[in-house]
């Protein structure tokens, strides 16, 4: 499993994990209200931003961009801005 995939983490939990991290720190989680879809949570200047990732028949869509798979989406946004920042590093998992 990818280091950035946090599964069933809630929106609130993702905000707690990303609060105080470097701008661009991110994680992907299951979308709470849309089974089979995902959310990308990203630390920005002033808050944590959440982006809906829709599962398509042959890939994924975020905003108006389509991708073959989630790793391609992540790699694209490490180079290109997603609103206010690029993706930098995956969030750290809490110690168990």
TrEMBL record:
Sections of the chain in a coiled coil: none
Keyword Nucleotide-binding attached: no
Keyword Ligase carried by entry: no
Keywords tagged on the record: SH2 domain
GO biological process, alphabetically ordered: cell migration; enzyme-linked receptor protein signaling pathway
SMART domains (UniProt xref): SH2
Record's GO cellular component terms: cytoplasm
SUPFAM superfamilies: SH2 domain
Pfam short name (any one): SH2
Domain SH2: 4-91
Any GO MF annotation of the entry: receptor tyrosine kinase binding
Name of this chain's protein: CRKL protein
Lineage, opening ranks: Eukaryota, Metazoa, Chordata, Cephalochordata, Leptocardii
Gene name of the encoded protein: CRKL
């Amino acid at each position: 499993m990818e280091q950035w995939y946090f599964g069933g983490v809630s929106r609130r939990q993702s905000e707690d994990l990303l609060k105080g991290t470097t701008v661009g720190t991110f994680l992907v989680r299951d979308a709470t209200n849309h089974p089979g879809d995902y959310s990308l949570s990203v630390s920005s200047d002033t808050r944590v931003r959440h982006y809906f990732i829709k599962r398509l028949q042959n890939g994924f869509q975020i905003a108006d961009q389509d991708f073959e798979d989630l790793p391609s989406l992540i790699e694209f946004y490490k180079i290109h801005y997603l609103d206010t920042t690029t993706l930098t590093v995956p969030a750290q998992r809490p110690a168990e």
